[in-house]
Design goal:
Distance between the termini: 100 Å
Strand order of the largest sheet: 5-2-9-8-7
Largest sheet: 5 strands, mixed
Helix content: 25-40%
Shape: elongated
Order of helices and strands: HEEEEEHEEEEH
Radius of gyration: 28 Å
């Protein structure tokens, strides 16, 4: 027969075990939460920030731009401060020795496109994403559209990272057919 004192002792032990287990669980949840907060601040939430980019296009350029990265025969790496400089040739095709620039970027501040030189009067409008508004832009204004980062495959080199975009006016963007041809690729440096 079990006595009342023994039952009370068993209940007390069970309560202490229960409280200890709950403290351990809450401590683990708290420490995990601290770890998550630390990870967000230490690593930017797992998102890598792209380096700032300055694209210098030939005066009056209209068309597609293709930038091929990590090319041994590409243009030398050039910076202005911390911003990468991409000097786009008339062909619209730039092969560069830069490695690809991936991650997130504030397109309003760190992604800039110019005609001829980096004078602010030569700055092009950007329509990079759906959050960028084109409502107050004249339809004749030259704009940068469809900026994107991806990969193409070459039978000799394998996967090549590439950035592409289109430079044109609002009124002409849907009238033109932008197709990339083999001849364009072969004449990249002209």
């Amino acid at each position: 027969m079990v006595r009342i004192n023994e039952v009370t002792l068993i209940v007390e032990i069970n309560m202490k075990m229960r409280n200890l287990i709950l403290r351990i669980i809450f401590t683990m949840i708290f420490l995990y939460g601290l770890y998550l907060v630390w990870a967000v601040f230490a690593f930017g939430g797992g998102r890598k920030k792209m380096a700032s980019e300055t694209h210098i296009l030939p005066k009056g350029f209209i068309g597609q731009v293709h930038i091929y990265f990590n090319q041994s025969n590409g243009k030398e790496i050039e910076y202005n401060g911390k911003s990468r400089i991409y000097r786009i040739p008339k062909s619209g095709i730039l092969k560069t020795k830069f490695i690809s620039n991936s991650g997130w970027i504030d397109s309003k501040e760190y992604l800039n496109f110019f005609y001829g030189n980096t004078d602010s009067t030569n700055l092009l409008h950007k329509y990079i994403s759906s959050r960028d508004s084109i409502e107050n832009i004249d339809s004749n204004t030259i704009i940068v559209f469809e900026y994107g980062i991806g990969t193409v495959w070459d039978k000799l080199e394998g996967d090549i990272n590439v950035t592409t975009y289109i430079v044109d006016s609002l009124k002409n963007i849907n009238k033109r057919h932008y197709k990339f041809t083999k001849e364009m690729f072969e004449n990249w440096n002209k």
